[in-house]
Amino acid sequence: MLNKEILNDAERVSNEKNVPQELVIEAIEKAISAAARKHFGVTHTYEAKVDRAKGSYLTFRVWQVVESPEQIENPDSQLLLVDAQAIDPNAEVGGVVKQQIDSVEFGRIGARMAKQVMGDEIRIAERQQIVEQFKPKEGTLVNGIVRKVMRDVLFVDVGGGVEAVLSRQDMIPREIFRVGDRLRALLFDVHYERRGALLHLSRTHKEMLTALFKIEVPEIAEDVIEIISAARDPGARSKILVKTNDGRVDPVGACVGMRGARVQAVSSELNGEKIDIVLWSDNPAQLVMNAMSPAEIVSMVVDEESRTMDLAVAPEQLAQAIGRNGQNVRLASELTGWKINVMTPEDLETKRAKEASNVKETFVRELEVDEEVADVLVREGFSSLEEIAYVPLQEMAAIEEFDEEIAEALQARAKDVLLTKAISEEVKHHQLPAEDLLSLQGMTEALAKKLAAHNIVSREDLAEQSAMDLLDIADDLITQEQASKLVLEARKHWFK
Predict the structure, then answer these.
(1) What is the pLDDT of residues 130-144, one digit of tens each?
(2) pLDDT per residue over 282-340, tens digit each?
(3) What distance lies between CA 136 and its chain's CA centroid?
(4) Pure H helices in 393-466
(5) Which long-range contacts (CB under 8 A, 24 or more apart) does 3-6 make?
(6) Predicted pLDDT at 20
(7) Whole-angstrom Cα distance, residue 1 to residue 3?
(8) Helix (H) or strand (E) holding 115
(9) 38 to each of 34, 46, 64, how far by Cα in Å?
(10) Distance in angstroms (rounded) separating the CA atoms of residues 84 and 96
(11) C-alpha torsion 167→170→176→182, nearest 10
């Protein structure tokens, strides 16, 4: 029997490990249950209960209650309802029954095993407590002291003896930390693990950049200035997109600070990372121009459907606009959500001319119009049949070279072409097998339909395939031998 000493020990461990005393006692109960399994049988189920006032304990054997013999998978831990009710008249199917047994007296081995189980349970409780403590801080900056440096990871004390992990891939390139160094990082992931790290830090995450600005710029914390998005090439360059909710405040100037003090403080924390403050605009063209600064945009072409912009810059600014290894344009694209292509004015004009020529050829071919009409459509900004078919009739009729009759004719032709294409696509995806395919020896209706779905609709189509082609399409309906015979059957007419 245990006595009051176990309660004293539980209190001592609770104070040492900074975990609730109740968790320590529950760990002791699990240790007693494990000792009982070791003594009586590992296939049995046991449960221990410690008296919180006296320190004594009782041990129970536990069965799960089932209704029929067919449901019994483990006779040592499952009991039929009729037998369970002999132990406890209130037993029900799906519940459990408990029967008190003699408790195990701890010998040297039993005590050692109990100590191990209790240690495991306390470590689990400690980790759960750490998660509860730090989960609300996820996504915020934490300060810590480097306690251990390994090749690919740092272990950082973030307070109260709790260690977090900063992996090499989450460190800014070329920065070095030694044991005892203080650092600041983003706590970006907190989750429970039975083994290993619980807290994961990052100094490369873009949220660290925004969190630093929130500290350095009071207007952001007060919601006078809003950070829309950020993009980083850690340790090299970053861009942050800001807007103001108060027209009297300059968001870029506020983030830069007097003589650049605020942005310099953030840059220093990030190992000298160069930071561009970009002003938000609800005009996509202006937004991208702001993001591409300091490069000056000469002209641009915007494709809203694909969210793509082609930008032209002076030849002498091309390298600056693109940036080293495409850094500037890549960050601007990530910041704004637009795909950005940068080129010289000559290249942009050549690209536009080529695209206009392709569109013109499409209009001449599909609408059966002469080049003059196609030129007018391209000049007025039409780039697809859909635009011609569904633009308001009055808008097309207002074109100088057209009248309402021509506009109606062009729209009718465009709609006819689109309808024909749609029907063609529908037929293509729902083709029916031809009679000569269905009549081949060895062919089944299910196989023929599956082949037709892959554009093999006739005997001739099948003859041009190999046995492996058939297996790739319908290995669930045919064997390799059957496929070979079927292909030979389809090719018979070749040899007559």
Answers:
(1) 877 888 888 899 999
(2) 999 999 999 998 888 999 988 888 899 999 999 998 999 998 889 999 999 999 999 99
(3) 21
(4) 393-397, 404-429, 435-438, 445-452, 459-463
(5) 3/54, 3/55, 3/56, 4/54, 4/55, 5/55, 6/50, 6/55
(6) 74
(7) 6
(8) helix 108-134
(9) 6, 10, 20
(10) 8
(11) -80
Q: What is the CA radius of gyration of the chain?
A: 37
Q: What is the mean pLDDT of residues 44-52?
A: 83
How many other CB atoms are found less than 10 A from the CB of residue 382? 20
**pLDDT, tens digit (0-9, with 9 covering 90-100), for 457-470:** 888 889 889 888 88
- Chain length of the chain: 496
What is the C-alpha separation between 276 and 295, in angstroms, rounded? Answer: 12
- C-alpha dist (Å) from residue 208 to 73, 171, 264: 53, 12, 15
The two tokens of residue 483 are 């496929």
Axis-axis angle for helices 404-429, 345-367 (nearest 10): 80
Distance CA 203, CA 274 (A): 15
In the numeric block, which tokens belong to residue 374?
Answer: 């196609």
